[in-house]
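hey so i finally got around to running the thing on that chain from the lab meeting. sorry it took forever, my laptop kept dying and i had to restart like 3 times. anyway pasting the input first so we r on the same page abt which one it is
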Amino acid sequence: MRPGAALLLALALAPGCSSVNDYLHDRAMDAVDMVRVHLIVGNALGAEVQITQWIGLGFMYEEKAWAGGLATRHFGTWDESIRAWGLLIHNWKENVKGLPYYSGSYGWYQRDNQPSAKFYHRDGPIELWTIRASAAVIIGADAEVRLGEIFDFIVGIVGFDPAHDDK
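ok and heres what got predicted. didnt touch it at all, straight out
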C-alpha cells in the first residue's frame, strides 16, 4: 500500500474526526499549543525556572508591563502584572489585560482552617505539566514548553482530546 493511501485510510478511521479539514486544523492548533513564548517590556524584574506548575526556583515581578508574542493559539499583545516566586514550591499570580489569561494563576495556599496546603490552578490537569523559563530587567522574555499539550497532540493523532480543545 502506498504511504499516502495508508495515511488517508488512517485519517478516515481515526475516531472523532468530522472531516479531514477539521482533523488537520485541530492537529495544527494542538501543535501551536505545545509552546508559548513572549517578550516583556516595562516594569519587570526577575528570573525563574519552573518544572511543572508545582515546582519553581526564582522570582518574577511585573507591573503593567507590555507583553507580546505567542499566547493561546494566536499572536498578540497584552499588558500583564505578574507576582511569581518559587523555592521549590511555586506560586504564580497573573493579571492580564487584552487576553482572557496567559497561563492563569496557580500555586499553593493554606487557610487557617485547613490542616495542610492545597494546590490551585486555572485549568484541567493538562495545564499542570509545563516547563517555563522567565527573565527580565525592564526587557525580558518568558517561554513555556507545555508537556500536557504535547501529549494532547500525540494522542490527538488517533482522535483523543484530553485538553478538550478540538472542534
